[in-house]
Amino acid sequence: MQPAPKSRKRKSDAVEASDDAPAPKKATTTKKKKDDDPLPDLSGIALPGDDDMSVPIYDSCQAVRTKINAHLRKPGVTKAAYGADSEHKIAGNLLTNFLAKKGPTAGNTSSVFYAAYVFFEKLRIRDGKPKNKTREEMEARWGPDGFDREHDSSRGYFCAAGTAPVVDKGGWM
């Protein structure tokens, strides 16, 4: 004995056979870029040395981490979107590793440190904000080459017995 065939149901009662006109299409909407776009396009702003990744950095690693965390708290900004949309592409795991570090020099050789600094510097220029006091102090302290990105912050130091090296909040020994 075979099962009874299933009856076919109409997909919609909205369209009758006598109604030949197609349903009106929905109007398409386009998203407009706002000035407060969480991930703005900063490609029109050029920094000297950005072509060969030699822009001098005048922020400590901890200051850059603070700026990244503040930016990630904005609505619509995620780590993945921030990494993918920045001019210098940042892998998610590199961003997570950089954010997990602590201290003014920890992460100084990371590409995230450079890319994030350039992003926030371009954002500052776009918004027409002046350099803050800390930035001017860092420029005076580190000179034209900026913060050290060549030497890993975990390197060792020789000290006299009973002394320990101290790094200030600007990364200066």
From TrEMBL:
Basic residues bias: start-end ranges: 1-11
Q: Which residues form the DUF7726 domain?
A: 55-129
Q: Which residue ranges are recorded for the region named Disordered?
A: 1-48
Top-level taxon of origin: Eukaryota
Q: Please identify the protein, giving its name as recorded.
A: DUF7726 domain-containing protein
